[in-house]
Write a structure and sequence with these properties.
By secondary structure, this protein is mainly beta. It has one helix at residues 2-9, and strands at 21-26, 32-48, 51-58, 64-65, 80-85, 89-98, 101-112, 127-133, 137-139, 143-146, 150-154, 157-167, 179-181, 220-227, 230-246, 252-258, 264-270, 274-281, 284-293, 298-309, 318-323, 328-332, 336-339, 343-346, 351-362, 374-375. The structure holds 2-acetamido-2-deoxy-beta-D-glucopyranose (NAG) (12 copies). Residues 120-121 line the site of one 2-acetamido-2-deoxy-beta-D-glucopyranose. Residues 196-211 have a biased composition (Low complexity).
Length: 382
């Protein structure tokens, strides 16, 4: 817990609010063979008057698909997506196929140190190149999906991908419906991956929104509950707790905690008209209580219970809060509730449960997949 809290305590972290951008490569007949929808964050170390400096920036949304991009030509050449941006920077994704899989075989990043907007006071002025193999891999005929951060660390450059949907060797001009999910998104994996890009704001990225005091968004986890008739709760969300508490010195403290999906266990139970989703992350537990109104065929979140152990400076480290008269996340049976913006669920005046990128379905779930009818709500945070 110290890890997650410590990270948040250093509140000068950049919220990961950068929108994804979508890029396409077409062959000479206009057929789309690569689509990539992704957020890319860069961290580059360079020298400035003998000092080590770091530049942090995102792949801008107006990056362009460069002419070196190609769909490949049989065995002679492989598909490649080259994205150019700023003053002579480019990121290449070189694809290859093997058996039933395709992968980003190599990632190549060219950066121009003479670009003073990114590399303030850089001593060197040349264009540098780094490259690395990646573990971005998917089954042929499926799209690759990875919401969580994937880091590629190279000498002097770290590249972090997130919210990625991409597919190469497309035959149909659009993303396949079937997908290959990355290990980072699988709740069951035991591998611990950093869930937030660690970015300090000592140098404000010129290509991203102005940093805010908000902590990084929590990683999206997948949680489910099995009832008598199969899956009865299926939830996809990032979860953050915001607790206001009194300290021993009578001052007020704020505890912001991001749930780490890999370290969160889900349990719960369902009957015909009520469902519990019980999420436990270390010493913190959040229970969501859903009810079904059988006559209107609608379900909603009626109750939330939060219990946690606060930092030792708290007057009372044992914290519990609940609210059983809520009316949130409403949807019709057979459909899912979806919201890509942050939602703040007010439990009490001391406790907020913030959910991010939520998609949730309760009670009737056909084939363990979200139903078609979705409710979208968007509102900005910026
Ligand atoms: C992921 O990208 C989609 C668009 O491709 C966007 O709507 C969504 O908000 C992004 N999610 C996050 C967590 O950035
Ligand atoms: C891309 O957007 C940035 C600001 O976000 C702007 O400074 C730059 O000129 C744009 N580049 C192109 C090629 O439009
Ligand atoms: C491509 O390579 C595969 C095996 O590596 C071979 O079977 C196939 O004939 C090659 N195709 C062409 C067009 O060279
Ligand atoms: C660049 O160098 C000048 C003089 O050496 C210094 O005043 C300035 O703060 C430096 N700028 C950055 C962004 O480091
Ligand atoms: C997509 O998934 C469905 C159901 O899992 C399967 O029947 C179908 O063969 C898959 N298609 C591809 C191209 O893998
Ligand atoms: C890359 O990540 C590693 C491990 O987190 C860190 O030690 C290193 O300083 C980072 N490098 C850059 C250029 O951000
Ligand atoms: C191609 O797309 C159409 C609709 O866009 C879909 O019905 C069809 O199943 C797709 N074919 C493949 C091979 O994915
Ligand atoms: C969630 O689904 C997985 C795979 O279907 C299953 O193994 C697991 O037991 C489920 N978890 C709960 C709490 O029902
Ligand atoms: C946390 O809660 C406090 C008090 O309700 C509020 O002022 C603050 O904006 C909240 N922060 C986040 C990140 O939700
Ligand atoms: C997740 O759990 C593992 C093993 O229980 C632990 O080693 C790791 O520190 C935890 N990660 C975080 C970020 O709390
Ligand atoms: C919630 O889960 C925790 C640990 O997994 C367990 O101790 C607790 O009894 C559960 N509560 C409910 C209501 O399922
Ligand atoms: C399970 O299915 C049976 C038969 O369709 C139904 O009568 C029962 O109410 C269902 N139970 C739950 C908890 O959904």
């Amino acid at each position: 817990m110290a890890g997650a809290r410590g990270l948040l305590a250093a509140a000068a972290l950049l919220g990961f609010l950068q929108a994804s951008s979508s890029f396409e490569v077409k062959d000479s007949s206009g057929k789309v063979c690569i689509i990539a929808d992704l957020t890319v964050a860069f961290s580059v170390e360079y020298k400035s008057n003998g000092q080590k400096e770091f530049a942090h920036f995102f792949l801008p949304q107006n990056a362009t698909v460069e002419s070196q991009s190609s769909c490949g030509n049989g065995n002679k050449s492989h598909p490649i997506l080259v994205l150019g941006f700023g003053a002579g920077h480019s990121l290449s994704l070189n694809f290859s196929e093997h058996a039933d899989n395709y992968q980003v075989e190599e990632l190549v990043f060219h950066y121009n140190l003479s670009d003073a907007t990114l590399f303030h006071n850089s001593t060197a002025g040349e264009v540098k190149k780094v490259s690395h193999k990646t573990t971005i891999q998917a089954h042929m005929g499926t799209k690759y999906r990875c919401i969580n951060a994937k880091h590629v660390n190279m000498k002097s450059v770290n590249i972090t991908f997130s919210n990625v949907t991409l597919e190469a060797y497309l035959t149909n001009g659009t993303f396949s419906t079937n997908k290959t999910e990355c290990a980072e998104d699988m709740v069951s994996t035991t591998a611990i991956v950093p869930t937030t890009p660690k970015q300090t704001t000592s140098q404000v990225p010129t290509t991203s929104p102005a940093p805010t005091a908000s902590p990084p968004n929590p990683a999206v986890g997948k949680y489910n509950v099995t009832g008598p008739n199969g899956t009865c709760v299926l939830a996809y969300m990032g979860l953050q707790l915001n607790i206001t508490y009194q300290k021993k010195d009578q001052k007020m403290g704020l505890d912001l905690l991001n749930f780490i999906p890999q370290n969160t266990t889900s349990s719960g139970r369902c009957d015909n008209t009520s469902a519990f989703l019980n999420l436990t992350f270390e010493k913190t537990r959040v229970i969501f209580y859903f009810v079904l109104n059988a006559s209107t065929e609608k379900y909603f979140l009626q109750g939330v219970n939060v219990s946690t152990t606060l930092p030792s400076e708290a007057k009372d480290p044992k914290f519990e809060a609940w609210n059983n008269s809520m009316s949130e996340l409403r949807a019709t049976v057979g459909n899912s509730y979806k919201c890509s913006a942050e939602e703040n669920l007010q439990v009490t005046d001391k406790a907020l449960v913030n959910v991010f990128n939520v998609q949730i379905q309760v009670f009737k779930i056909d084939g363990d997949k979200f139903g078609a009818g979705k409710r979208f709500i968007f509102w900005g945070r910026t």
